[in-house]
TrEMBL record:
Residues 11-117 form the Mor transcription activator domain. It comes from the Bacteria. InterPro entries: c-mor_Regulatory_Protein (IPR052411), Homeodomain-like_sf (IPR009057), Mor_transcription_activator (IPR014875). This is Mor transcription activator domain-containing protein. It comes from Acinetobacter nematophilus.
Amino acid sequence: MTRELGKQSRQGKALLHDLRDLACRLLKNLDTVDDDAAKQISNELMFQVSQHWGGQSVYIIKDDAFHAEERDIQIYKEFNGHNHTELSKKYKLTEIYIYRIVKRMHEQERNRLQPSLFDA
């Protein structure tokens, strides 16, 4: 148990340091932020994330899953009722998968706009 906790602790520290370093690099790329300010902001971000999320087990989705969600929203917006084939070619998916996406997104939209009478 102690060994696993030590590994998680090292991974947590590595994640926070990576977050700090990535933020610093991104801020330095901006013309409006000097190096000292970038370091200060990055360190504060690392501290705030540690304070807010520290001690919790967090799963970070891969970029693919995030983009798939954005893609599905875009497909639903572009869907006109008759363009399954066109959308399947554009997004390199099967027509059946386009149908599934549209159905799922429609249900989510309906649930968002029309709450159930039976929810507490």
